[in-house]
Known about the structure:
Order of helices and strands: EHEHEHHHEEEEEEHEEEEE
Strand order of the largest sheet: 6-4-5-10-12-11
CATH topology: Purple Acid Phosphatase, chain A, domain 2
Structural class: alpha/beta
Largest sheet: 6 strands, mixed
Number of helices: 6
CATH superfamily: Metallo-dependent phosphatases
Number of domains: 1
CATH class: Alpha Beta
Number of strands: 14
Helix content: 10-25%
Strand content: 15-25%
Distance between the termini: 29 Å
Radius of gyration: 17 Å
Amino acid sequence: MNKTGRVIIIGDIHGCIRELDELLGLLKIVSSDSLYFIGDLIDRGPDPAAVVRRCRQIANECATYLILGNHEEKFLHWLQHCRNNTGMESQMKGTEEFPALLKGLSNSDIEFLHGAYYSLALKEENITLLHGGIFLSPKFPFPETYRYDLHSPKELKGLNLITKIRYISPDGKFVSLNEKTPRDHYWADLYDGSFGHIFFGHQAFIRDTPKEFPHATCLDTGCVYGGWLNAAVLKDGLKTYFSIQSKERYSQNINIQGNI
């Protein structure tokens, strides 16, 4: 583990600024810590712009990294269309919150989002951080570190899918949520640990501690849906969870796995 400080990984926040501030107070961040946000800072919750600002500002206190969530990826895609006047931004679905979010963000905030990682390999710890999951076929070059502003899905086919994956087919390929069949499986149930232990988010498991799989841990415990905001703290080979219960249910969502 990080010999000089803690490795701290925080789950999906979705605009829940009060819960984030309370969790950070509980964690008592110090300069020797390394802090990783697992993605989906924005959308659905009460103040996504404040969450982005807070996460960016923490970089003044300790080493801070953002894993790209599917919501950040969509926002940056939408923003690119807006800036290039393509007209495509008006055709994108699920962007209703983006104009207000953009007004609340500074250039520094947007640069922080642009610096997010599709995946981040902590090789000394044998850990890979990503937002959604992995597909098993075709083989993807993990464990590796891929950054949004440096690596393109056009060059690395399937790179953008790791922000979205939930289910994979029996032959290990990505399955869209609306195309899932009884033959398909949640990716983490099949993952064999070949890329180290994976910490991820994206799928809300409504519970007060992260959902553990044999070789992966989901840190999305549904704060924005009335669940909890969780952090995993790794130090000297030990893992501890810190949990804050949501103040209220800010959003409804059909992709909740429940208390399993």
